[in-house]
Amino acid sequence: MADYGGFIYGFDEPKRADLLRQRLTEFESDTFTDVVSDSDFRLKQAELFVCSLDGTTVELAALVRRSVRVATGKVRIRFTDLVPFDPLPLSEIDAALSAPIKKYFSLAKSGKTCRLPPKTWGTVWERLKQARPSAAAELDRIEQLRRHVPLVVSGPTAPILAQERDAAMLALRFAGHDPSDLLTRLRWTEGLSIFTGIASVGLLEDQMIKHDASIFSNWELVAQTRVGETIFRSESHVVTIMDVNRTAIEHTLGVDLLYYVRPQHTFLMIQYKRMVKEEDGVIGYRPDDQCTKEVNRMLAFVGGHSDDWDGTAANYRLSRMPFYMKLCPKETFDPTSKKMLNGIYLPLDLWRAMCESPDVVGPRGGVRFTYNNTPARLNTDQFVHLVQTGLVGSSGATTDDLRELVRESLSMAHSVVIAEVDEEPAKPDTGDRERTLDMSDAGDKCDW
What is the mean pLDDT of residues 46-74? Predict the structure, then answer.
């Protein structure tokens, strides 16, 4: 950080500061915006702000990016990756500096701005980490994010990296976790899988016991090919996410997500497929010989395994098909982005039927899946609801079944993201305990 200086940002409107504090506390918001003078705040792609809500302490750090112009000479800035900490008196920072820290305050209302000199900023940043050690890891993380911005990876590895991250974030959503929690664990190095060097973050003793009992961690196959692994914990369950891959990232041909709920022996496997824009301007996916082999492999698995309903409510499914395709447009890879991949989810039996449908078959016999010719599809929110409520997925999978699925995916030069839920997930709160599927929109969102 020797060549960088950030900002100390003061909210000099008490009502605004109180409202912000309330939003951050009551709604646990992880982002908010403010409007500043474009000429006063000459911001780079990403900046670090340390914020004071009362003028006497600092209590929040954040990564800040320019957003959109909102009026003549005014621009909106967005605060993300918030790191709150116990208020630290300015006097404690002053003790490490040769001049009072208020000399460097940038004030929201008055428009006064001051980028701290790199040496002064380094002193302030280190003082924060020393005085608030519980926030030190997060402060290091957002500093790493600032250095990466605008590190956006393109080229042949970008879609694989984006799909690996999306698979892990999707698994976290299935299990009821905030998918952006994954970003706090990533220690990404260019040219490698996103799971290389992933942090396990504070394993407790009981988590370590559960980890030792993980059916996947004990496989020799996984031990030989594991790229990285991390564990997320809630009051009701533990989620272990790992990546296995025999192939260097630049030679990896695809990404699969295997999601397994151990108490019910329920599993899903989602295979990612890359859509590209063709000469006619339409974004689509054309199955190739490799895809045909993979589909036949999955169909053979389904045909060789009975999964009949036993008549109990707990094992009822709208569909017992365990295999799904996720078609998503070709993406660049931004290691700091919280955005998941947009895409089309299709169960394998629907995929097979559509491959024979005139809706996706062209005049010369070619098959192309597009957004326009796949009206019977699921989006991410719909699919997540189905998984969380237990209305889709196969039950009764054995360890040998899962091991064979992973082995075959690896033989296809795929990166396999494995997510294992080690305890029964908390049931959705539906009042009378019925399993319901809410397909309604979230409504208008405020700017916090």
Answer: 83
